[in-house]
Design a protein that fits this description.
By secondary structure, this protein is α/β, with parallel strands linked by helices. The protein has a domain at 103-234: Rossmann fold (3-Layer(aba) Sandwich). The protein contains 9 helices and 15 strands. The strands form 3 sheets. It has a 6-stranded mixed β-sheet, sandwiched between helices. A 6-stranded parallel β-sheet has the order 9-8-7-10-11-12. A 3-stranded antiparallel β-sheet has the order 13-14-15. The protein is globular and about 55 Å long. The structure holds 2'-monophosphoadenosine-5'-diphosphate (ATR). 2'-monophosphoadenosine-5'-diphosphate (ATR) is lined by residues 63-64, 66, 127-132, 151-153, 156, 189-191, 194, 196, 198.
Length: 288
């Protein structure tokens, strides 16, 4: 029987989740259907309820609903609780379980796929919404010297930093970034969805810094801010990397081989100009 999944967000037309999961399903010989569902801003819970009634087994959640998804859950993983936001829902007769894979996926992409060592680094996270919340826990535990959360609305950055009080995390507004520079600048705002970039001084990019855009797509306004000669932009245009933790595979009914048992699996998807998948490469392919 075909299993039904969906990505739920608003907007959601840009999401590559349907083809990413279709490729995973093909690679693991699963029979799935994966929908894009745009929920009204005030109707997340209602939309999820309707999808469950229509035999939905699980969903990915994207902006702006990651915090609403957290509130929807009956049970939440430790990472989801720390973030107060989830991006993965699994439905069971007993209730909904939520997971936040944003932070572990990002960390793995940075350290394994891109070879970026976190130890001793100074990191800037732009944004304090659902996406930023998921990143902070795993980032804070990865050995960086300092993590600065900067947000347009400073109070939201401060509230988020307080969840990590006693650690190396601090908060500020964009203006306060003048005169400071960083090894890694992560854009976790949704500015790219409005064809905009956060109003930050371009001097935040230290020479050789990595500019990391969470929204995939060609050349977003944030990446255009960075001085290209000196920095290493991660563009999610042609090759999209994704990481599925073991828990997600299991919850989505995908087989977990002994080779993936301990570690998430990561894959590169080569995308054609019209958004079709040209190739899938498992970055740490299980040896079968
Ligand atoms: P997400 O799940 O993607 O984090 P969200 O919870 O709606 O979505 O949060 C959006 C984040 O992007 C917020 O940090 C928001 O800043 P505010 O808290 O000040 O609203 C930030 N953001 C959105 N558009 C932006 C823009 N044009 N410039 C800078 N920050 C922006």
């Amino acid at each position: 029987m075909t299993d039904r999944y969906a990505v739920i967000g608003n907007p959601v037309a840009h999401s590559k989740s349907p083809w990413i999961h279709a490729e995973f399903a093909r690679a693991t010989r699963q029979d799935i259907e994966y929908l894009r569902i745009e929920a009204p801003h005030d109707g997340f819970a209602r939309t999820v309820g309707e999808f469950r009634s229509a035999n939905g087994r699980g969903a990915n959640v994207t902006l702006p609903f990651k915090e609403a998804a957290y509130r929807y859950c009956d049970e939440v993983s430790a990472e989801g609780r720390l973030a107060g936001a989830v991006n993965t829902l699994a439905f069971a007769p007993t209730g909904t379980r939520g997971e936040n894979t944003d932070g572990s996926g990002l960390l793995r992409d940075l350290t394994v796929n891109l070879g970026f060592s976190m130890r001793g680094r100074v990191i800037l996270v732009l944004g304090a919404g659902g996406a930023a919340r998921g990143l902070l826990g795993p980032l804070a535990g990865a050995g960086a010297t300092r993590i600065v959360i900067a947000n347009r609305t400073v109070a939201k950055a401060q509230a988020l930093a307080q969840r990590f009080s006693g650690s190396s995390v601090e908060a500020c507004g964009f203006d306060a970034l003048a005169g400071r520079d960083f090894d890694l600048v992560i854009n976790a705002t949704s500015a790219a969805m409005h064809h905009d970039a956060p109003r930050i001084p371009t001097s935040v990019f230290r020479k050789g810094a990595l500019a990391y855009e969470l929204v995939y797509g060609h050349d977003t306004p944030f990446l255009a801010l960075a001085p290209f000669d000196d920095i290493d932009p991660v563009m999610r245009g042609e090759v999209v990397r994704t990481t599925l933790p073991r828990a997600t595979l299991a919850e989505f009914g995908l087989p977990v081989s002994p080779m993936h048992a301990a570690e998430p699996i990561a894959a590169d998807f080569l995308v054609s100009a019209d958004g079709g998948v040209l190739a899938v490469r498992f970055v740490d392919a299980p040896r079968r």
